[in-house]
Amino acid sequence: MVDSADDGGSKDNARRQFLKAGLGAAGGALAVAGGARAAEPDPLITEVQDWTRYLGKGVDATPYGLPSQYESDVVRRSVPWLTADAKSSVNFTPLYALDGTITPSGLCFERHHGGVAVIDPADHRLMIHGMVERPLVFTLDELKRFPRENHVYFLECAANSGMEWRGAQLNGCQFTHGMIHNLEYCGVPLRYLLEEAGVKPQAKWMLTEGGDASLMTRSIPMEKIMDDCLVAFKMNGEALRPEQGYPIRLVVPGWEGNMWIKWLRRLELGDRSWEQREETSKYTDLLADGVARRHTFVMDAKSVITNPSPQAPLTHGKGRTVLTGLAWSGHGRIAKVDVSIDGGRNWSEARLEGGSSKGVYRFYHDFDWDGSELFLQSRAIDEDGNVQPTKNRLRAERGENSIYHNNGIQTWHVRADGVTENVEVS
Ligand code: MTE
Ligand code: CO
Q1: What's the pLDDT score for residue 39?
Q2: Other CB atoms within 10 A of residue 11 CB
Q3: Which residues surround ligand 2, an ion (CB under 5 A)?
């Protein structure tokens, strides 16, 4: 390689030598991919570019860092016709543009029922009362004196994929599966706070209430509270984002997102479930026989291929291809993910990367695409042996009326030209 113009005489000489070496390397890479490209000099290598010619911005130009300007289309997106007003609405995580397992804080889908509460942490209080020996009120500073834990958990809204019950509808995994995020939480186990308050023996349920304008409430059984629920104040190492419940939110690992009360302000212990709006008219599943399932808290084993997908088509042509996606289960760990490129006729085991109990796993399947159309599917199997069902099986068991808890197998149709669409093969 040439590192200075002096070695080869003139600057042009140096560029010509660089070019030869560069083409050699590129030729090798192309042979592997099976593509073809004209062997023309690449000005991006042979010409000095602006970003090399001029000094860049110095430190402190952006005290709180932002993504590259070239990533400006990687954003949360909403579906305007889904809700009447943004204050009680949802937007979706751009899963197709992400990799690894952790969701970047600024890209977490949002689901608010009364907008984002703006709370000065100095003014925030958490109250515990009801069937306890000592009703207590905690300031944030007091909460932070209890032992903390860090865990990576997914939060999936029970309505994720809900629009897909009757057939393929939304064209992109952002919209079909983007009501999920996976964060590292830092918080205090709720049982420590309850030990402080003293739980009366007859207490079996806890009502949890948020401090936003919707005053969202959910009842949670005490076994779950004492097992792994957290009062979290950090996500991905920094303070919770306002959208995620700043200054504190309830973390209910593996259970439906609606129970993860944001802007958490009140915990009341009682001897039965409160059966409030979010656990009666919402978050129950009307079955074919007219009976509604209720208390369906756990999010079942589920997966989705994020690339290729409708927002991330296969533009590179045949040859070396990376298929990747996400898998998770509210029951615990993911044991295995199978993928199919022919609509479920043949399956092969995907390679799992990262992941944690009640957290998201990343899977990969690297293959040589022959350029023919594909029907991509993935199927998650968790450590308890739960297998992600086909959509037909789900509908056979649960009827056509449901919205929540759709963990059916998703199919993407990749056309020969690479364009990818949401279809159903069940
Ligand atoms: N908590 C309060 N206080 N208010 C809300 O509107 N929405 C719930 C839950 N907790 C909600 C709430 C629902 S339905 C979901 S899916 C999750 O928060 C969404 O969490 P996120 O906004 O961090 O994605
Ligand atoms: Co929800």
Answers
A1: 77
A2: 12
A3: 111, 157, 257-258
